[in-house]
Target: EfeO-type cupredoxin-like domain-containing protein
Amino acid sequence: MNHLLLAALVGAAVIAGCGGDDGSDKTSSRGTAAAAKATDTIRIADFLYDPAVATVKAGQKISVRNEDAAPHTLTHEASERAFDSGNIKGKASGSVTIDKPGTYKVFCELHAFMKAEITVTG
Ligand SMILES: [Cu+2]
Model:
């Protein structure tokens, strides 16, 4: 059972990794699927996080790719600030790593209306 799940996650990651950096998948991956998909990259485009509901592994480095001209952050929306990418300039990338499993609310410190949620699995 766990092996099947793991295989599915790995498969999804491989497929996602093959998507390239052309940024042309604006419509295809913008869906609000009920199930969060496993990812190691979060895009920011048009003041939206993509995926807006993400699942990642504890301790895994998450790349944050800002495709906007404006700077953004990917920041834990809680006083403890379990993670914070800091300012990511336009057309640049940053990263965060979250060590503790759980579900985290995310926002952009520069544009507080930008929201996402990251679930970290152990
Ligand atoms: Cu922002």
User: Anything to note?
Assistant: The helical segments are 2-17. Residues 72, 108, 110-111, 114 surround copper (II) ion (CB under 6 Å). Strands lie at 37-38, 41-45, 48-50, 53-57, 61-66, 75-76, 93-97, 102-107, 115-121. The chain is about 15% helix and 35% strand.
